[in-house]
Amino acid sequence: MPIERTGSERTIADLSRIDERNLGLCKVDDELNIQVLEAEDIQADFLRAESTLGPNVPIKVQERISVARNLATYAWFSYEFYGVSVFWSLSCVEMALRARFVEMLPEQLKLVKKGVAVETAPLSHEIEEKVRRRQVEIEGFPDFNFSLFALLKWAQETNLLPSEANSEAIRKLRNNMAHPRFFNWVVPPSAAIDMFEVLIKVVVKLWPE
After folding, report:
1. Contact present, 130 and 119 (Cβ < 8 Å)
2. How far is 140 from 142, CA to CA, in rounded Å?
3. Are the C-beta atoms of residues 107 and 122 closer than 8 Å to each other?
4. Between the N and C ends of the chain, which has fewer C-beta atoms within 10 Å?
5. How far apart, in whole angstroms, are the C-alpha atoms of residue 185 and residue 17?
6. Contacts for 203 with CB less than 8 Å, ≥ 6 apart
7. Burial group, residue 107, by CB count within 10 angstroms (0-12, 13-18, 19+)
8. For the CA atoms of 196, 201, 206, 209, what is the dihedral angle to 10 degrees?
9. 110 forms bridges with which residues in the sheet?
10. Do residues 154 and 101 lie in contact, with contact meaning Cβ atoms separated by under 8 Å?
């Protein structure tokens, strides 16, 4: 049977129409020259930043980063996607920090409870859940629980967080965007590229060439 439509579906032509809020976007250089921005100009800033990634970055992290870039690209047709790109970049920061933390753990974790060794086991979903619920601790990481706060603190203490990444600002922005209360986030393309550049600097610091 054919799919029943509602009559309100948008056509390809409509979906690919420029969001009027992008019209008139411009960049001013140091000599006060004004350049009206086109879709390719928005993409260029993201591609330049992404090109600095080294070969050691895990594929899954690279794939998620490309989604943040694509969201900003398609914001040319749906302006709100700039805000979604910001949020996705924040989620990439968390994913990258977790991936690097896990990489640096020993294959066999020593787990303790109230200072007493209770188990030695490889990291698994079950073990991670126990750590999250503070039922056990990873030896050497008494306060770690896989939260974004814990990951940022670990990265900062181990000098794996670049100076451009303000851990408290990242945590607060992620939480505010993840738990909206009063309004939908609408941000300009500059906010999306700024957050994307911070993300890239974090990833480059975690996996240098």
Report:
1. no
2. 6
3. yes
4. N
5. 22
6. 53, 57, 61, 65, 92, 96
7. exposed
8. 120
9. 120
10. yes
Tens-place pLDDT, residues 95-142: 999 999 999 999 999 999 988 888 898 999 999 999 999 999 999 999
Helix (H, G, I), strand (E, B), or coil: what is residue 3? coil
pTM (2 d.p.)? 0.92
- Closest to 75 in 3D by CA, of 196, 199, 203, 201: 196
Length in residues, the chain: 209
- Phi/psi for 48 (5° steps) reads -60, -45
Residue 80 burial by Cβ neighbours in a 10 Å radius (0-12, 13-18, 19+): middle
DSSP 186: -
With contact defined as beta carbons under 8 Å apart, do 163 and 170 qualify?
no
Instruction: Say how far apart CA 190 and CA 176 lie, in whole Å.
Output: 19
Can you tell me whether residue 113 is helix, strand or coil?
strand
Q: How far is CA 14 from CA 25, 62, 134, 158, in A?
A: 21, 31, 51, 49
pLDDT tens digits along 164-188: 999 999 999 999 999 988 878 899 9
Q: Which residues, listed in sequence order, are joined to residue 28 by a DSSP beta bridge?
A: 34
Bridge partner list, 116 = 113
Strand partners, 112: 117, 137
